[in-house]
Amino acid sequence: MRNFxxxxxxxxxxxxxxxxxxxxxQAYNWLPIAAAAEAEPVGHLFSFLVKLGTIVxxxxxxxxxxxxxxxRATSNDSSDAPAIRGNLKLEITWTVIPILLVIxxxxxxxxxxxxxxxxxxxxxxxxxxxxxxxxxxxxxxxIQPVEKIEVIAKQWSWSFxxxxxxxxxxxxxxxVNQRVHLMLQSEDVVHGFYVPNFRIKQDIIPNQAIELKFxxxxxxxxxxxxxxxxxxxxxxxxxxVYVDSAERYSQWLAQAATRPLVPAVNPAMSEHTQPPxxxxxxxxxxxxxxxxxxxNPAQ
Length: 299
Hints:
The chain is of the alpha+beta class. It has helices at about 1-25, 40-70, 90-115, 140-145, 245-255, 265-275; strands at about 150-155, 155-160, 165-170, 170-175, 180-185, 190-195, 200-205, 210-215, 220-225, 240-245, 260-265, 295.
């Protein structure tokens, strides 16, 4: 019986490790297409958590199945199990293992956050000598962020201002493979800057200018969402994000600067001013959307 249990344990451990590896690799496909250098370490962290979670889940499930199959009481056995109390070894085991797992996850997550260096200028001297920041593949001239882009959030619209060119837009255009520097501001309540393809989310606190730095590395169109519930029409608070080549980025800025400023089209304002098909019978107060931003319109 002992040899049988040992063989069964060996097979189970091997199968669990194999399944965790397979699911960990599959986890990369569960996320949207990565479009920023910072997305790579976040993907590694997610894969790590899936692997670890698979091992824990299958380990607990395997013990339950083994207990049910080999230690199941007979149909005519209605007696209670032996009263086991004060098993110090067992209590230490199920206390120490979760603590070690939590410390492991926390330290690995913090290391990933350091490598990303998305908030302000995080000193690189704290990194391990063998590690490099997430944007290390870019040349030294690309490490310094391009001009600051002001991101203004309000109920319920986004606007983006490029101070050097005096351009304001409802579209966020970013140059590919260049480290960008955003200054996030809120004019009313807490909002959240979240682009799933960048794997970056940052809360925006009223009356504070919050820095956000990252390196988009895949040309394409993506979607910016408000990750915080900011009121009635927050689901309509979205904006297109374009990662352009350097030439296309400069061309867009030059063209946008020639267009006159006009009020932006705002879905929240349109929905608020449109009378509902069914009259509302509640006395709840609805916060009206802020006035649409004044922008250089897109083509």
